[in-house]
Design goal:
127 residues, alpha+beta, Muramoyl-pentapeptide Carboxypeptidase, domain 2, five-stranded antiparallel sheet, 5 strands
Length: 127
């Protein structure tokens, strides 16, 4: 049975660019790993806090403009930070983007500061 987005996940997609929302909505139906949207559009104050904590390294986050989301795997109904669970989500997100003719970038593919939950629309296509 395919997974579906919870009401909380849908609320967290408010203010997110419609193309990224489409990718997330399709990915949840394709993935073998259930997930939750943990953050979408972010305020400057929230971003400052995350930078201070070391959870983010930039004040130019794509979350500030609605061009990024953070997704977390659900294992037995609980969020897990174990990297093994991020890979099926990544496969589904990339597949969904391809099917929709869109590009997304995964923080897990970054060379520095790997960010498993993070997904964003590329700067080049969405300035």
């Amino acid at each position: 049975m395919p997974h579906t987005l919870s009401d909380a996940s849908r609320r967290r997609l408010q203010g997110v660019h419609p193309d990224l929302v489409k990718v997330v909505e399709l990915a949840i139906t394709l993935t073998t790993q259930d997930f939750r949207v943990i953050e979408g559009l972010r305020t400057l104050d929230r971003q400052r806090i995350l930078v201070q904590k070391g959870a983010s390294r930039t004040m130019k986050s794509r979350h500030l403009t609605g061009h990024a989301v953070d997704l977390a795997p659900l294992v037995d109904g609980q969020i897990s930070w174990d990297w093994q669970y991020f890979h099926p989500i990544a496969a589904a997100m990339k597949d969904a983007a391809k099917r929709l003719g869109l590009r997304v970038e995964w923080g897990g593919d970054w060379r520095k500061f790997k960010d498993g939950p993070h997904w964003q629309l590329p700067w080049e296509t969405y300035p």
